[in-house]
Specification:
The structure holds 2 protein chains of 2 kinds. By secondary structure, chain A is α/β, with parallel strands linked by helices. Chain A is about 25% helix and about 30% strand. Chain A is built from 18 helices and 37 strands. An 8-stranded mixed sheet of chain A has the order 19-18-20-21-27-26-25-23, sandwiched between helices. Chain A has a 6-stranded mixed sheet with strand order 7-6-3-8-9-36, with helices on both faces. In chain A, β4 and β5 form a beta hairpin. The radius of gyration of chain A is 46 Å and the shape is elongated. Chain A starts with a strand and ends with a helix. The relative contact order of chain A is 0.13. The model of chain A is unreliable at about 675-695 (pLDDT under 50). Chain B is about 30% helix and about 10% strand. Chain B has a single domain (about 75-295), classed as 3-Layer(aba) Sandwich (Rossmann fold), CATH 3.40.50.12140. Chain B starts with a helix and ends in a 5-residue tail after the last helix. The chains are: A alpha/beta, B alpha/beta.
C-alpha cells in the first residue's frame, strides 16, 4: 500500500475572474522578479530575496484561499481490473471426441476442465497482477460461477444452445461499483453460431468490448456421431395424396456405415429407408413418400438408430407436426334408375365444392336397348364396371349404390372387392328402392357380413307413408342426433313414402352395427323393428344402409321446416357423409392449439368448442382436458398428465387454456365431453353397438429448443470460429486438444489512465485555505512585505 | 289392338333377348354406329319416312302396353303433373301421358301411366313432385298471390317448371305472361335463351334444336341459377307434337318435318325429363377420364 498526496481545488472561479486573477498574479510575480533583479545599493541582496519570497508566499496564500485548496492524502494499492472467463455450458460440450481416430473420446467439458486445472498457476498470477477473475457459465443465458464451481468448472453442460453474443454483450453494459473490464477468456467448443449472420454478430459484439478475447477451444477433430440435421416437410398433407418428407443426415466417423432410417407417426413406424452414411460433415439426404390414410394432426419423427460408440443419441431423431387434411372428397355415385331421390342426392353432392363427384346412372335397361332406334344419336356411355369396381375402387373416399340392381349389371362379381374396400377403410352407402335389395346382389357373404342389415333376403319395396322412429342409438349418433334435438322430432318433418322391409344384421355386435331410424310399426319375424337407417363399422371402414328411396321429400315440401337454418334433407345427408368420411367436424367437440410447434418458453394456447347435435355452438358444457407427453411410458401406458382440468364452455360454446413453461418435447392435448344418457324407458336398440363416435378429441404439438444445438456437432468449424474471434479482438487462440493451457500473461487491454489500475484504500483531506494557518500566512506575507519595503524606503 | 300388341311385344322381347345375349355380359349402352351417321336434326325433306301406327317412332299406343307399362307395384314411379288453372290450361290433352309412355319405352325412368294434375298452384299437391308442366295458349291468367308464392317456393326448393306455349310461335301472349310470372317469382334471374351447349341438349339424346309441333324458334328460354334450370319456356308447342287422338294417331301435324319432326320433339321431351331427374349428369363426361386417373390407390 502506498501513500499519495495531491492538491484538490474546492472552488474554481468564473473564467473571467480566473483570467483577471491570473493576470494579477503574473503582474505581481513579474514586478517582484523585476525588483529583485534591479540593482539597488541601498537594499542588501538578502533583503531583496526576502521581499520576493514574501511576495510569492502571499500569492500562494491568496491562491489557496481563492481556490479553496485541500491537501489530499490517499493510501492506494493496485486495482481489481476484471478478467471475465465465459465457460460454455451448452449440450454440445458434453460430446466426446478425440484427437485421433484411435484416441479414446473425451468429453469436451472434461478436456476444458483439465486445461483449467493445468492453468491454475497462471490464474494465481493473474490475481497477483491485481486482476479480479470472474467466472460465468453461459448457454442461452449467463449465470455466475463462484467458489468450488469456479475453481473446478463443475456443472453439467446441458444448455439448449450457446448464445455467446448475449454473454459478451452483457459484459459491455456498465455496472456500478465494478472494476473495469480488462479482458475476456472464452472456454467453448465454438459451436455458438448457426449461420454466418450469427457468427458476424458474435464478432461485432466481441470487438465492441474493446478488450482482447482469448479463446480456448475444447473440441477435437475426431468424433463419431450421426445427426438428423434438417427436415423438409410441408405443414399440411392431404389424405391419400403422396407427401414428401426429406431428412438430411450429417455423420462423422461413420463413413460407409449402412443404417436404416425410420419414419414414425405418433410413435409408430410408417416407413423406413436403408442408407449409407456419408463422409464427415457431408449431408446425406433421405426421402420418404407417405400417403396419410386419415385426417388429423400427427407428430412425425425421423429416427436414426444409435450407432456404436456414438458421441450422443440426442440428435438422432427429429420431430415435426403435419396436419392431414382431406383433399376433395371423391365420391362414386351409381344409380340404377333416375328418379327424384337420385336427383336430390346428386344436387346436394354437386353443391359442395369439396366433393369430386363421379356419377354413373343407368338411363336405360336391356329392354329399352331392344326397342331403340339404332340411328338415334345418344349421349350414353358404357358403364365401366371393371374400371370402377376393380382398378379404381380404392381411389374413392365414398361409394354410393343408389337403388342399384347389381346382378342386372354384372356388378355382383365385384362385390367382394367392395367388401374388401370397406374393410380397408372405405365408406359405402346402399340406398334402397324398387331395384335394390331385390336381386340378392348384396347377399354375397363377404358384403352381407359388413352391412348393418341382413341383405341375404330379398326385400321388395313397400309403398306406404310413414314417419320413422329415432332409436336410442340414433339419439346419440351424429347422423341423426339432430332429429332427437329438433322440436317435435320427426313429427314435424314430411313423411317418407316407401321402404324396403329389411332386418338388422344378426352380426350387429361384431361389426358395430346400429339402427338409427326404424319403421314405427313394422317388425321382422324375430320382432325386430325394420331398420330404415342403419350404420356399421366393419374393419377400418364404415357402411350405411338407407332402406328407402324417398328421403328427397325431406328437402321438398310445402311447409318444410328449417332446423338451425338447414333443410332436414341436407342435415341428414351432410351428417351422413361427414360421419362416413370420419370428418373431425362431425364430432361434438373440437380442440385446437394456436400453432403446431412452439419455441421453449412460449405459451401454448388450447381452445375448445362444443357443438350441438345440429352443429350449433353449445354453451355450458363441461369438458375434461389433459396434457400428456406424446408416446407411452415404460409400462406401455400413456404417461401421466402434466396438466389436467375441467372447462365449462361459455355462451358461444368455447373454452380456453394457456399453458406455460413446457419443456422441450412432443405433447398430446386431449379433451372429452359427455353426450348425455338415453332417456329413461327407452329400449336401447343398438345401444350395445360399438363404433359410435367417441366424444374425445386430441391435438398434438411440439415444443422445440430455440436452436439446433446438436444438429451439427463437428468441432472444426467451432475451432475456427473461436480463432477468428481471438484474432479480431487481439486475443490469443488456444486449443485444449493441442495441450494448450491459459497463459500467465493473458492479453489485456492497456490502462486508459494513471489511476486505472489503482484502488484507494483510505483518503484524508487537509484543507489549506480555511484554517488559522492560512490567515496567518496571508497576513504575515502581505504585511511583512509591506513593512520590509517601508523600512527600505521603497514605500 | 291389345292382343296384337302383346304378340308384338313378345316377339320383340324374344328378338331382343337373342340379339342382346352377347351384349348382356357388357351391360352397357351402345354408342352410335359410325357406319350409319345420323343428322343432328332431321332434314326438311324426309318424305320417305312414315312410321306406321304401333311403331315406337310414329306414335300410336304403347306396343308393349301392359297394365303398369311393365312396372310392378313396387316400382318407384314418377309423375309428370300438369298445372290446372282458370283458362286454357290443357290445350293439348294427353301430351304428358304420351311423354310418360315414351319415357318408359326408351329409358329406365318409370313415369306413371296417367300423369296427374295439380288442381291449383297453391295446393299442397304441387310439392308431390319436383316437376311441373304448364301448358297454355293466348295467355296465362294470374295465379293469385298464393299460387305465385307457392311456385316461388317450388323452384327455390329445386323444382323445375316447363312452360309449353301451344301457339307454337304464332301468338306471343302466353309466353309474355309466363315471362312476367317468372319475373315475379324469380326476380334475381332473367329469362334468357338456353345455350346449345347446355346439358339439356345431351341429357339422353344428342339434340341440336328443340322441336315441337313447330320449329319457329331454334332455342328454348330458361331461368337458370348457377347453371341449374329452374324454369323452361318451350315456344314450339311440344305438347302439340306429343298429343294423340283416341286412336293413338298424332293429333296435330308437325310442320314442316312431319313424323320425323315429331320424333325429334319426343326426344326433346325425353331429354327434359332426364335432365329433370339427373340434372347436369351428362356434363360430367368431359372429366371422367381425368377423375379416374388423378388419385393414388388406397
Amino acid at each position: 500500500m502506498n501513500e499519495q498526496m495531491s492538491l484538490a481545488a474546492g472552488h474554481v472561479p468564473d473564467p473571467a475572474v480566473l483570467a483577471l486573477l491570473g493576470v494579477a498574479v503574473l503582474l505581481a510575480v513579474a514586478e517582484g522578479m523585476a525588483a529583485f533583479r534591479r540593482p539597488r545599493s541601498a537594499v542588501p541582496r538578502r533583503i531583496s530575496a526576502a521581499l520576493l519570497g514574501l511576495r510569492l508566499l502571499a500569492l500562494a496564500a491568496l491562491l489557496s484561499v481563492v481556490f479553496e485548496l485541500t491537501l489530499r492524502i490517499e493510501q492506494v494499492s493496485p486495482s481489481g481490473r476484471r478478467l471475465v472467463v465465459l465457460v460454455d455450458h451448452s449440450a454440445s460440450m458434453a460430446l466426446a471426441d478425440g484427437t485421433t481416430p484411435e484416441a479414446t473420446p473425451e468429453a469436451r467439458i472434461d478436456r476444458l476442465r483439465a486445461a483449467w486445472q493445468a492453468s491454475a498457476d497462471a490464474r494465481v498470477g493473474w490475481r497477483d497482477d491485481g486482476l479480479t477473475v470472474e467466472v460465468r457459465g453461459f448457454d442461452l443465458e449467463t449465470h455466475p460461477m463462484t467458489g468450488d464451481r469456479a475453481e473446478t468448472l463443475a456443472g453439467e453442460p446441458d444448455g439448449a444452445g450457446s448464445d455467446l453474443a448475449r454473454a459478451l454483450s452483457e459484459l459491455g453494459q456498465p455496472e456500478a461499483d465494478r472494476a473495469p473490464l480488462a479482458g475476456v477468456v472464452v472456454l467453448s467448443d465454438g459451436l455458438v453460431a448457426e449461420d454466418d449472420a450469427t457468427a458476424a454478430h458474435v464478432d461485432a459484439v466481441g470487438q465492441g468490448l474493446q478488450v482482447p478475447i482469448t479463446t480456448l477451444s475444447a473440441g477435437a477433430p475426431f468424433i463419431r456421431d450421426v445427426s438428423v440435421a434438417q427436415i423438409r416437410a410441408g405443414e399440411f398433407a392431404f389424405v391419400e395424396n403422396v407427401a414428401e418428407i426429406e431428412a438430411t443426415l450429417v455423420a462423422h466417423g461413420l463413413a460407409g456405415t449402412a443404417t436404416t432410417v425410420l419414419l414414425r407417426r405418433d410413435g409408430e413406424e410408417v416407413a423406413s429407408r436403408r442408407v449409407e452414411l456419408g463422409t464427415d460433415g457431408v449431408p446425406t439426404p433421405v426421402r420418404f413418400e407417405v400417403a396419410p390414410d386419415r385426417v388429423g394432426q400427427f407428430v412425425y419423427e425421423v429416427v436414426v438408430p444409435a450407432q456404436p460408440n456414438e458421441a450422443t443419441v440426442a440428435n438422432n431423431a427429429r420431430a415435426f407436426v403435419i396436419k392431414v387434411l382431406r383433399d376433395k372428397v371423391r365420391v362414386l355415385h351409381v344409380a340404377g334408375r333416375p328418379d327424384w331421390d337420385v336427383r336430390a342426392l346428386r344436387t346436394l353432392l354437386r353443391r359442395d365444392p369439396n366433393v369430386e363427384l363421379l356419377s354413373y346412372y343407368i338411363l336405360r335397361g336391356l329392354d329399352d336397348i331392344g326397342r331403340e332406334d339404332t340411328t338415334a344419336a345418344l349421349s350414353l356411355i358404357p358403364f365401366p364396371t371393371d374400371e370402377l369396381f376393380e382398378e379404381e375402387l380404392g381411389s374413392f373416399d365414398l361409394v354410393i349404390l343408389h337403388n342399384f340392381d347389381a346382378v342386372q349389371h354384372q356388378v355382383e362379381q365385384y362385390l367382394d372387392n367392395i367388401a374388401r374396400y370397406v374393410e380397408e377403410g372405405g365408406a359405402l352407402v346402399l340406398i334402397g328402392g324398387d331395384l335394390a335389395f331385390t336381386d340378392l346382389g348384396y347377399g354375397l357373404p363377404e358384403l352381407a357380413n359388413l352391412l348393418p342389415v341382413d341383405s341375404r333376403i330379398r326385400s321388395r319395396l313397400t309403398h306406404e307413408p310413414f314417419r320413422p322412429r329415432v332409436t336410442d342409438a340414433g339419439r346419440r349418433h351424429p347422423i341423426t342426433a339432430w332429429l332427437a334435438a329438433a322440436e317435435g322430432g320427426w313429427g314435424q318433418l314430411p313423411a317418407l313414402s316407401n321402404y324396403n322391409p329389411l332386418s338388422p344384421n344378426p352380426r350387429s355386435d361384431v361389426i358395430g352395427a346400429a339402427s338409427l331410424l326404424v319403421h314405427p310399426e313394422a317388425t321382422d319375424a324375430r320382432g325386430h323393428p325394420r331398420p330404415i337407417l342403419g350404420v356399421s363399422e366393419p374393419g377400418r371402414g364404415r357402411a350405411l344402409v338407407l332402406a328407402t328411396g324417398s328421403t328427397w321429400q325431406l328437402g321438398f315440401a310445402p311447409d318444410l321446416p328449417l332446423i338451425d337454418g338447414a333443410r332436414p334433407y341436407d342435415l341428414l345427408w351432410l351428417g351422413a357423409v361427414r360421419w362416413l368420411l370420419r370428418d373431425d367436424s362431425s364430432g361434438r367437440l373440437t380442440l385446437e392449439t394456436d400453432k403446431p410447434r412452439y419455441r421453449v418458453g412460449e405459451a401454448v394456447e388450447l381452445s375448445a368448442k362444443t357443438w350441438s347435435a345440429s352443429y350449433a355452438a353449445e354453451p355450458g358444457i363441461e369438458v375434461e382436458w389433459a396434457l400428456r407427453p406424446l408416446g407411452t411410458g415404460p409400462d406401455g401406458q400413456p404417461p401421466a398428465p402434466l396438466h389436467e382440468g375441467q372447462w365449462t364452455t361459455d355462451g358461444l360454446g368455447r373454452a380456453r387454456q394457456v399453458l406455460e413453461f413446457l419443456p422441450v418435447g412432443a405433447y398430446v392435448a386431449q379433451a372429452r365431453r359427455e353426450l348425455g344418457a338415453p332417456a329413461a324407458g327407452e329400449i336401447g336398440e343398438g345401444s350395445e353397438a360399438e363404433g359410435l363416435d367417441a366424444p374425445e378429441v386430441r391435438r398434438v404439438f411440439i415444443v422445440e429448443p430455440p436452436g439446433r444445438e446438436l444438429a451439427r456437432i463437428d468441432a472444426d468449424p467451432g475451432i475456427a470460429r473461436l480463432a477468428a474471434l481471438a484474432e479480431a479482438t487481439g486475443g490469443e487462440a488456444l486449443s485444449a486438444a493441442d495441450g494448450d493451457t491459459l497463459p500467465r500473461r493473458i492479453p489485456l487491454a492497456p490502462l486508459r489512465s494513471a489511476r486505472e489500475g489503482q484502488r484507494v484504500d483510505a483518503r484524508t483531506d487537509v484543507p489549506l485555505w480555511n484554517g488559522w494557518l492560512a490567515l496567518l500566512l496571508l497576513v504575515t506575507s502581505f504585511g511583512g512585505e509591506w513593512l520590509l519595503r517601508r523600512r527600505q524606503g521603497e514605500v | 289392338m291389345r292382343p296384337t300388341d302383346l304378340e308384338r311385344r313378345a316377339l320383340l322381347m324374344g328378338m331382343g333377348a337373342v340379339a342382346l345375349a352377347p351384349a348382356a355380359s357388357l351391360a352397357r349402352s351402345r354408342e352410335p354406329s359410325p357406319a350409319a351417321p345420323v343428322p343432328a336434326a332431321p332434314p326438311d325433306d324426309w318424305p320417305g319416312f312414315a312410321p306406321g301406327p304401333g311403331s315406337p317412332f310414329g306414335g300410336g299406343a304403347d306396343p308393349f302396353g301392359m297394365p303398369g307399362g311393365g312396372a310392378d307395384s313396387s316400382t318407384i314411379t314418377i309423375d309428370l303433373p300438369q298445372l290446372r288453372y282458370e283458362g286454357s290450361w290443357n290445350p293439348r290433352p294427353g301430351a304428358m301421358r304420351v311423354l310418360a309412355r315414351e319415357l318408359r319405352l326408351r329409358t329406365r325412368l318409370e313415369p306413371v301411366l296417367e300423369p296427374g294434375e295439380v288442381a291449383a298452384a297453391s295446393s299442397a299437391e304441387l310439392f308431390a313432385t319436383p316437376f311441373l308442366y304448364v301448358a297454355g295458349q293466348g295467355e296465362l291468367p294470374p295465379l293469385g298471390p298464393g299460387g305465385e308464392e307457392a311456385l316461388r317456393r317450388f323452384i327455390d326448393l329445386g323444382g323445375l317448371i316447363v312452360f309449353d306455349a301451344a301457339d307454337g310461335g304464332t301468338d306471343p301472349g302466353f309466353v309474355r305472361d309466363v315471362k312476367a310470372l317468372l319475373g315475379r317469382i324469380s326476380p334475381a334471374s332473367e329469362v334468357a335463351p338456353v345455350g346449345r351447349d347446355h346439358v339439356l341438349y345431351r341429357s339422353f339424346y344428342l339434340i341440336d334444336s328443340p322441336m315441337g309441333r313447330t320449329r319457329t324458334h331454334d332455342h328454348v328460354l330458361g331461368v337458370q341459377d348457377e347453371g341449374r334450370l329452374r324454369a323452361l319456356v318451350m315456344r314450339n308447342d311440344l305438347g302439340g307434337a306429343l298429343a294423340e287422338t283416341n286412336d293413338g294417331l298424332p293429333a296435330y301435324p308437325c310442320t314442316p318435318g312431319g313424323h320425323v319432326q315429331r320424333e325429334w320433339a319426343i326426344r326433346f321431351g325425353v331429354n327434359i325429363l332426364l335432365y329433370a331427374t339427373c340434372t347436369d349428369y351428362k356434363a360430367d363426361r368431359a372429366h371422367v377420364e381425368t377423375l379416374l386417373r388423378s388419385r393414388r390407390w388406397r
